[in-house]
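tool_call: predict_structure(chain=1)
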Amino acid sequence: LLHRPGRLQSKKVFVQRGIFHGTGNQFGKLNCAGVKENSQWIRRRTTICLAISSLAGVEMLSHLLHGKLSRLPTHWTAMSIDINFRKRAVGKLPTDIGVYVLCDLDEIPIYVGQSTDGIRRRVGRHLTSARSDIIANRQIDVWEIAYVWAYPTPREEIAALEAQLFHHFDSKSKLMNGTIPQKAKRGKVPNPFFRVQVMPDEELKNKKDPAQRLPRQAAHYAQIVGHFLDVKNSRQIARAMTSHFVRLQKYHDQLLRAATEAPEGDGDS
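tool_result:
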């Protein structure tokens, strides 16, 4: 169980995910070979994320075996998404054209988009992983989308509103958008006309567990890296990678803080 071979392969990178050999506090290094020198930063970030995910898994397995966990966390048991709830929630969004904002489990914006064929239809494609560039390019993980804000807008004002919302939210927390719109001169940032929760409360609560969220998003970051190296090497994907990496640091801090605050078990040193 401590040796789970798996490989992420591409034309430019070969990452051996077989993760850590040895026992106790002695672990072998994660093997990375064949990465070009001008991609050293990608190798380092990928290694860190895979290591985080693997160490978290080994630690949780250890807790389970020693009776500190009553069951495996849901990300080990393929937590399902309540599709029916999501469909009903998306149905509450307007069919109007305009701008929408996808928000994470903490209701923090992670993507600003526009739709000229109806907000409900566009968001529905995102959340069902249907044909959608931001899904295909691994820019967002629908697992993380819990809220949608909608701004029905006249066609001639869509671009300006999208730009305004992008720069407003991006200045607070880096968005996953690959393309940066030009700033537009508009008045006060409007509140959304529709705010819809697209995830049931219980699912939302479970997913916000740092022990589940960090490994999941670390693995998703590794997918973005693989896509960047093997499929689409672009500035847009690179920007999404950087934004996602910044978010991983937050999840990492949350996990450590939760571990520090948790009461120590009997016999721990």
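agent: Residues 1-39, 45-78 have pLDDT under 50 and may be disordered. Proceeding to next step.
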